[in-house]
Design a protein that fits this description.
With about 375 residues, the chain is α/β, with parallel strands linked by helices. The chain has twelve helices and 14 strands. The strands form two sheets. The chain has a nine-stranded mixed sheet with strand order 10-9-8-7-11-6-12-14-13, sandwiched between helices. The model has no long low-confidence stretch (mean pLDDT about 95).
Length: about 375
């Protein structure tokens, strides 16, 4: 690797670091960061802070002022070339006199794509694809939404808090709390970046969870709560139902679920979505506007999603304890293929949270 390419990659890493600051605030737009570099020094930095507000490039140009002229702009995603809620970023870069633009991944949105060519036509040197894989991983939900798969189901992230022997509950079904406070705080941060948080009805009945975001990141739009509940067993006295008017709740059931239960839940403000089978239920959620789904359990739902091969991202929190074979496994309902046919996942991150460890995986 040449020194110049190494420098480009280093500045692009900084752009992606900045982009993360928009987590939970910019959807359905992507996370984008920008660094303006002139004579080897930072002239200005910016990130997309809020949906509908200036994009990362404009923020960085404002911070740089006159120092932007002749600078290189490192942008984690291809600059947009269309009028949306804000003017095209390509226009701002050209007007500022930027000499060179380096970006991570091409914009998959056909309305906004082509910014690189617009900049080249204006006489700016353009280099794309620097840190492309990392940029796509950072905006996996955005790329999924603009893919053929994104039209049929939400992007699905499955979070599992497990013991070292991959158990999510003990022999009596207790699962609160396997992981510590630091890991639970990270779960709240992750929730903020998804359209909806989902659980199975078994978890809803056993734990009566809130499924709200309570932490450092306040989402621009609080994620909806979704319960996969084929026979509509969700209790009217549960926290989810009692707070349905504050944060939306959807119960996803089979078409033959009891009509009286459906009427009671709908009367309490719960949106009931009836569809036959998991594939149709996911499609119905997507049609209902859910582009991304953060699934938190339990074992029946986790196994069903993994068996259907619809999980796009795995957040595996491992706690340093052993529960034993009597504990609940999220993988119990899966088939057992030969080793050479088993799906392999790609690791995109490993982070410690207190005594626990998060391993983040993407589909291979």
């Amino acid at each position: 690797m040449t020194d110049a390419l190494a420098a480009d990659r280093a500045w692009m890493r900084r752009a992606r670091e900045l982009a993360w600051r928009g987590w939970g605030r910019v959807a359905p737009n992507p996370l984008v960061g920008c660094v303006l570099v002139r004579d080897g020094e930072v002239a200005g930095e910016g990130w997309h802070r809020e949906y509908g507000q200036p994009h990362a490039e404009v923020e960085a140009l404002h911070a740089a002022g006159d120092a932007a002229r002749g600078a290189t702009a490192y942008v984690s995603l291809e600059p947009c070339s269309h009028w949306g809620k804000t003017p095209p970023c390509t226009d701002a870069l050209v007007a500022a006199g930027v000499r060179r633009v380096v970006f991570g991944a091409h914009d998959p949105n056909p309305k906004a794509a082509g910014g690189g060519e617009v900049l080249r036509a204006a006489g700016i040197e353009v280099l794309g694809g620097i840190g492309e894989a990392e940029a796509r991983d950072q905006n996996a939900v955005f790329f999924h939404a603009h893919s053929s798969a994104g039209a049929g189901r939400p992007f699905i992230a499955l979070k599992l808090a497990m013991s070292l022997d991959a158990r999510i509950a003990d022999g009596s079904g207790r699962s609160v709390w396997i992981t510590g406070e630091e890991a639970r705080a990270e779960v709240h941060r992750l929730r903020a970046g998804y359209d909806a948080v989902a659980i199975g009805v078994g978890t809803a009945v056993a734990d009566d969870p809130r499924l709200t975001v309570r932490g450092a990141v306040e989402p621009r739009v609080p994620p909806a709560r979704v319960v996969f509940d084929r026979a509509l067993r969700l209790q009217l006295t549960s926290f989810l139902v009692r707070t349905a008017a504050e944060v939306p709740v959807a119960a996803v059931c089979e078409p033959d679920a009891p009509a009286d239960r459906r009427a009671a839940l709908e009367g309490a403000g719960v949106r009931v979505i009836a569809a036959a089978g998991l594939e149709a239920q996911l499609r119905a959620l997507r049609e209902d506007g859910v582009q991304s789904l953060f699934v938190e359990g339990g074992s029946v739902l986790a196994s069903a999603l993994l068996a259907a091969d619809v999980v796009d991202r795995l957040y595996l929190f491992y706690a340093p304890l052993l529960i034993g074979p009597a504990g609940a496994s999220p993988f119990a309902g899966m088939a057992t293929p030969p080793l050479d046919e088993a799906a392999r996942w790609r690791r995109i991150g490993t982070e410690p949270f207190g005594a626990d460890t998060l391993i983040t995986l993407a589909r291979g």
